[in-house]
Design a protein that fits this description.
The complex is a heterodimer. By secondary structure, chain A is α+β, with helices and mostly antiparallel strands. Chain A is 27% helix and 37% strand. Chain A has 2 domains: 103 residues, 2-Layer Sandwich (Alpha-D-Glucose-1,6-Bisphosphate, Chain A, domain 4); 33 residues, no CATH class. Chain A has a 6-stranded antiparallel β-sheet, with helices on one face. The radius of gyration of chain A is 18 Å and the shape is globular. Chain B is built from 5 helices and 3 strands; from the N terminus they run ααβααββα. In chain B, a hairpin with a 7-residue loop joins β2 and β3. The termini of chain B are far apart. The chains are: A alpha+beta, B mainly alpha. Chains A and B meet through β1, α1, α2, β6 and α3 of A and α1, α2 and α5 of B.
Chain lengths: 140, 105
């Protein structure tokens, strides 16, 4: 289990075009989810997705970082997630674009160890809670 | 599901959970380990219980005492959720590629 979701994807399009797709309302609404994004740091916006029990379908965001053709990040709160962070970083590569994508900030708790070790090693052993405790004290 | 994330976001609750994973305890016993009042601890335990991370049962010998047990299966839900989220982004980023191919010819 990871504490950050990360992807690196290469697109056969120049950064300017990829930027337009990740940082304009119309494009985002098509490939991601309908939204009212505005490219202004500090501005709030929302994505509207399909509601299901326990989730009203709204994702609340605030633009955190914006550097044209390079970097866009926004907060992501909705459903189970509170104040997580989505980040798109673009890197030109000879007319193509490498996108470094990250979704992070799962409440610090994604102390991967907490979950991974508990799940894979069985948490009933004596050693494990000690390890966890040490880890959580360091990271908590 | 939402509760699991929130329940574990708090460092005191994480410590309580780890304490209980090692040994069942009642509220009073937990409170002695933390610089906090019993009601404050009870509140934390309640949140853990609502998230299905802690189970509370009366003590078999002294039924006035209620024992708290760690119950960490709920964390599996969290793991499943993360996998789902990862899948979501993977699909959307692929969708971004299709979107580019469609609109930027």
């Amino acid at each position: 289990m990871k504490d950050t979701i990360k992807f690196t994807v290469e697109y056969n399009f120049p950064v300017e075009e990829v930027w337009q797709a990740i940082a304009t309302k119309e494009a985002m609404s098509e490939w991601l989810m309908p939204c009212d994004f505005e490219p202004i740091v500090g501005r709030s916006f929302q994505f509207k997705s399909k509601p299901y029990p326990g989730f009203d379908g709204n994702i609340h965001c605030v633009v955190l970082e914006l550097v044209e053709n390079k970097l866009l990040s926004y907060s992501w709160t909705g459903g189970s997630l509170e104040d997580t962070r989505v980040r798109f970083q673009l890197q030109p590569k000879g007319g193509k674009t490498v996108l470094h994508f990250e979704h992070s900030g799962f409440n610090g708790f994604m102390n991967q160890l907490l979950v991974r070790r508990i799940l894979s090693n069985g948490w009933k052993t004596k050693i494990l809670p000690k390890l966890l405790l040490k880890f959580l004290k360091k990271n908590g | 599901m939402a509760d699991v994330f929130k329940a574990i976001a708090d460092p005191t609750r994480r410590e309580i959970l780890i304490m209980l994973a090692q040994k069942k305890s009642n509220i009073g016993e937990i409170a002695t380990q933390f610089d906090m009042s019993r009601p404050a601890i009870a509140k934390h335990v309640k949140i853990l219980e609502q998230a299905n991370l802690v189970d509370i049962k009366p003590d078999s010998e002294d039924t006035r005492q209620r024992n708290c047990y760690a119950q960490l299966e709920a964390l599996q839900e969290v793991e499943a959720y993360m996998k789902q989220l990862e899948e979501f982004w993977k699909n959307r980023l692929t969708g971004l590629g299709s979107f580019l191919a469609k609109t930027k010819k």
